Records
---
Amino acid sequence: MNSINSTIPGDATMPEKAPLAVEDPVTEERRETVEIEEGKTVGIPFSDNPKFALRNVEVSYGDTRAIRNISLDIARNEVIAFIGPSGCGKSTFLRCLNRMNDSIDTCRVKGSLMLDGDDIYDPRRDVVELRARVGMVFQKPNPFPKSIYENVAYGPRIHGLANRKSDLDEIVESSLRKAGLWDEVKDRLDATATGMSGGQQQRLCIARAIAVSPEVILMDEPCSALDPIATAKVEELIAEMSESYTIVIVTHSMQQAARVSHRTAYFHLGHLVEVNETNKVFTAPEHELTESYITGRFG
Amino acid sequence: MQTANLFPLVLILAAVAYWLAFQRSRAVAAPLGGVRHLKALPTHYAARAALWSAIPGLIVLALWTGFEGKVIQGIVMGSLPQDMWPDSPGKASLLLSQISNVASGSLDPDLASEPIAKAAALLKTLREQSSLFMTILVILITVLGAAFAWFRVAPHINARNSVETTLRRIFFVCAALAVLITLGIVFSVILETVRFFGRVPITDFLFGTSWSPQTALRADQVGADGAFGVIPLFTGTLLISAIALLVAVPTGLLSAIYLSEYAGKKVRSTIKPLLELLAGIPTVVYGFFAALTVAPFIRDLAESIGLEASSQSALAAGLVMGIMIIPFVSSLSDDVINAVPQSLRDGSLALGATQSETMKKVIFPAALPGIMGGILLAASRAIGETMIVVMAAGLAANLTANPLDSVTTVTVQIATLLVGDQEFDSAKTLSAFALGMLLFIVTLALNVLALKIVRKYREQYE
């Protein structure tokens, strides 16, 4: 049943043959209703001007295969949303982009993952430099138990971005401004960050990520712990940031994906089923599974 | 019946009450259609029955044994003719022990005077009666409590709340007991200390630089005056503890960081128990290791580079003590470092921090209170340690800061002062209590200080 996708339009880098999958009971079960062909993605997974070029990515935890032969381009300055049911591998895939899976002993990543043409998983690669370029915001706000100022100054300090105190002050202020937090906290920069509201904490984490001037920001369900008002603020922020950063956002909220992203990728059981322009995915999905998911038949 | 036999009997009765109430609640529930129609589970009814039978029984038992002696004494003394009533507490206890000796038969009644023989007979009968009454009363109360609980097993009565309330009170009593016992110890030490300061001026004790507690037993002996200057002892204690902490804190902390942040699961599960083993070795074993291996080695080493060293040195005792307290630092620090949420690590790593930067700037400040707790525990172990010092550092109370000299510590002196036959009204013996009191105050002050430092520097995560 596994076959190679040849419908992807005009891409020379697409491999001729995708490795065959080890049969998996869950996949088998699903096949009874809908067929997923490994390595086959419908829609527009590739770009002419990719920031990330990801080919035949396979991720496994021990014997469990979490990501099965995914190929995808992430374009410069685009906002791409990863959606899909729980356990479909979207967070795992996201964490490959700045090697946050490294700390998990059993995690193995195969395939080619390029950032601006350089291999992310090159053993000689400096992870510190990679993560300075590819920042991350997590599901639960995780400010350090330090002052608001220290939280934002943390990154610039460890990367030596500021020589003088006034430079650092400037970075902190501009980062907090970009995160839309400056007016709320400018009078209490020395207050501890854990005393802020959840939404403020999350925006602080975004400011903290911005402070090291990354090129890409990965967001792993950044609003799942926030109330609707805080969510709206973060989404507004994402829209503003898309001018200067490439943003990859994992979300469980399809409305959120529809609101903030340019392209949407639908993951299913470790497969990348469909990638397309966001309005296309939500109005006219090409794949049966995507349609079932966005219409709420499962997920 | 003896108290020692009565106590287990009450517990057995309570267990029987538990079982009976359990059976009855099942029986009551059966016609209703099962246990879920009761307001509480069978175990709650059963536990209530056990508590209601055991607690009143045990309280009566405790009160009776507590006051029995005094009451009987009062009655016996009152039975004596008025002219025999003692005029001082000392004489009273002498008289009482005479009476009880006669009563127990270790003193021939024929040798004692008539009123005393009478009193002894009275004492004997009173004791027998008291024992009998106590047995009957305790068993009766226990059985009544059980019976009451047994009748209160009914579907509409909720036993759950009363069990929870009773348990909460029992826990409170246990917590209060620990505090009360500590207070009791402090008070008993304070009393003796006050007596000591009645003989030796407090300024001599606190600021004296010489310690030789040998006092003459008779007034005409030579060297009748002891010297009770505590400073050499405290410098000795601080010197050895400081050496021990210098060994234990860096080693323990760094090994904790390695174990929690860098080591793989397998390495961790092997090394951690091995490290904790260090705390389980008896201090005597450390003592002879220090005295027979480390101390001579240090002496030889010092002499080979031209330093004068005694064969018993503060350095030897301190080094070995440091090894002993490594697990206090490492094990506790490892636990608190592990307790720092992974999300903080992820946050720091995702910003491009290295593992060691993350450790230094994020994890360590967040784990600081726990790490400080471990260090404090290690420090109090070091200050309180006696055996290693006796064996490796000697008994000479030298006032020195040279770690190659032999020194002695407060706890070692307390031990030597109280070992063997002692009279409890000489300044020599009483000085042990003053030392204990001072040690208590010093360690308390250290604890308060450390807490203050922690409050100032800690970074509290949720």
Note: DSSP finds eleven helices and eleven strands in chain A.
---
Amino acid sequence: MSKQPFENGSVNRRTALGALLGAPLLAGVSVAWQDPVSLEEAKRIAVVKKVSPSVVAVVTGGGSGVVISPDGYALTNFHVVQGQGGALRCGLPDGILYDAVLVGLDKIGDVALIKLLPRKDKDGKDIAFPHAEIGDSDTVKVGDWSFAMGNPFLLAADFTPTVTFGLVSGTHRYQYPERGMFEYTDCIQVDTSINPGNSGGPLFDMNGKLVGINGRGSFDKRGRVNSGVGYAITLNQIQNFMGSLKSGLLVDHASLGATVSTSNDEELERPQVVISNLISSDAERRGLELGDEITRLAGRRVSTVNQFKNVLGIYPKGWRVPVNYRRRIEGAGTQTRQALVRLMGYEKRELDEDGRPVAPGKPPAPKPGRPGQPMPPGKKPEEKEEGPPSPALKLYEEKPGYANWLVNKQRRDAALAGLKAALGDLGAAAGVWTVKGKGFLGEKKLEAPVSLAWSELAQGKPEVVSARVDGVDFSLEPLKPDLTAQALRDPAGSGGMLAALHLLRLFLAKGDKAFPQGMVHGGETPLYPPLDQDPEDWWPLRKNAEVLEGTLGGSRALAFLVEEKGADGKAAVRLACLEVWLSPDEDPCELHLDRVKPVGGGRSMPHLITVRHKGSNFLRLEAETWELR
Amino acid sequence: MGIALGLVCAGALALAQDPPLADVIKRVDARLVKVYGAGGVRGLAAYGTGIVVSPTGHVLTVNNHILDTTELRVHLPDGTRLLAKVVAIEPELDLALLKIQDSTAPDDMPHFDLAAAAKAGPPKPGTLVLGFSNQFQIATREEPMTVQRGILAGITPLSARTGAFQVPYRGQALIVDAITNNPGAAGGALTTRQGELLGIIGREVSNELTQTWVNYAIPVWASVDLTDATGAIRKVTVSELVEKKEKYKPSNPADRSREKAATVETGIVLVPDVVERTPPYVDYLRAGGAGLRAGLKPDDLILSVEGMTVPTIGAWKDALAGRKPGEPIRLEVRRGEKIELITLTPDKPAAKPVPAPAPKPPVPPAR
């Protein structure tokens, strides 16, 4: 029997029972018998000790944070770093004050992603940071124990965090936004003490897994200190935004394009969430109607407006999520359907860094005494010190609409480089491109020969893209001045296949340079396969994709890049889809690209091209020959 | 050795038998309702919490402002919204009993057996307790209540600090270390770790002297003694309120212990009781009364009754309650700079209250 049986932070009942049974035999011997309560305590102490080194004291702004990766990414609240600029200073329990750079911001969700700058070892290599292990916050249950760590009242002069312990009081809680920000959706409610200065700090489960970021509390008459009700943003929500936060974005949350209300029908035995208003949106285009009862959103059951907002609130703008709904049809009972809906943005207007609308206008005054207010930072930010500029500033570039424009550019360039590595140098092939193969047309999948051709890209020569489908010729010269709206959308029903193919060629050949303003990294979003038949449930079929966005003329192109194992078993980037929007109010033409194979000259091209529009496949081309001149 | 081994194992098993907290919480939550009524102004919440105490939908809650409406609603744990009505009130316990009105209401609702809970009696201070309520209206419809954990810090009569708290309830209260008494929490449940009902979470109250907040619950076994005009003592209990339901006869608020008919006549008239903590100064003494006979003088300050300090007029009245005519009472009195010991032998109370004469200016102390 070890005196310290739980050095590794784990205990099982057998060990405990062994200790219990062994105890009487050893009575009188100097080994102390440990009762189960002491064992639990020992386990708790070990867990706190284990996670402690990852807890950040955000000195600039006066709050807390937590390191989540060995290269120094850390999470905190937006309201902690608000107004502090791009360079921050953070203390870790090792007693060292680190420089840190702002990476991504989520104003509505009250999250900031920052990155601590590592120290170097004697060989000049970065020293890895101790970091918290991210847990699945959906496994957190009411009645679970939890502990918060951080810097309440800025007590940690030497950056040693304070730990508070308590019960999970509620899960999937909704807390209304304040001034258009700090909407806490699907959050964890705890009676663990959360005080000013705790903002941005970690909430751990009893296995030491990071499940939340503490940031709000309900206050009333007792003042803005812990009154038994604190809220933590779930890590699962933050994970949905992580791909976009890491791209230096000011991320936006989502709205459905429809407002819902809990049915007021007093006769109803159960509450229902019913569409009460619908605006021109993807939801409308996907066939949702007034009066439809929404039963599930992104796979989760909803029956109250709070639940609806909870589920909607954890997803970023632009994500496609399945919406299950029930419709009463006269004489035919009710029908249950699923639609795959692109979520709209949440922010109605642009907000500046302090959350004020950019357009002149009075921000609404905060309502006093309202529950669920963000914890104020522990104290006012210090006076800016004179001295050498922070090394973090070298990693930061300001641009309206971005948290850190430099990060966005770097990530965009890395994605483009990955694509180039996968497909070879397509820019050098400035001549005619052709692809021929077997086509399958429409829902009936009628087989017919199909060929596509692109003219050479040369100064002063017209750019033409053409297609021969089952003997019928289509062609488009996108830069022709008197182009009709219909010509741009040819062939009919494709949503603009020729225009999309044109942008595909430009993007593959020129990358970022295909677009006058260049491209931006749009974060990460789910992508669904172009199935011939709608599946029972889209949600499990999603794949995470990085998005690059570019605008040319009135069209917007979104390139979806997924990382997967190439033929050689190594990770490779695949351009899985190019979405081309000829108008923001119209469904795009989607070119889904797969089966990338070498075509000679060190280049590779997709050998399965699926043209998709309005939720169904217009054309599926199984390429037999590619020619790139 | 065998015995020791047995004991140790039994201890381990008892620990293992504690049901998971999540299960306990679900069971309690299924027996609670959200209450919506009057309020929404001047910081008064229009929402509260209630405890289901009968299969047909009787709900126990705190007798507060939200009940002051004809549109009282409760939301059941499954989200069903139903109308409710106040059927009985007990001001001494600060509790009200509601009944869900809708004909569609279920008649087999999960509920707490209050009589059984009351029989279990007071828990020991130091017990781990759970507080359940819809504080801050965090939950709507079917969303579960807020649950908090705390330690039972003590069981003490709130009446002992009459005047310090503006709480109608003056019986024994369960004091907890958790911040359970937030807006909307009144009427919530305080339970054991096993989910057994201990008390009804009270109002948001603060000690007016120290400005500190007190988190309390009215115990399920709460009982307040009232003395009626004949001197008979009536016990007011939570169990009776819940058992008699619509037939429950509330105590007359005028019967409150402070105003209750005196069982003795002292012939002492104190200064007017104008503030919460008015000290018991003698204003004047009735001619031929017991006070005059015992040698009390106007401006005397009564300090204690039978060794118990009486800092306020309320405490003085409480101290006299239940005393018998003809039985001497020892008083400690401050007169100028001196403490006097006085024995008062009270008379029978007059059949009719003696009309108080017009107040006179205080008579200077005789020297």
Note: Helices of chain B lie at 2-17, 21-29, 114-119, 238-244, 290-294, 313-320.
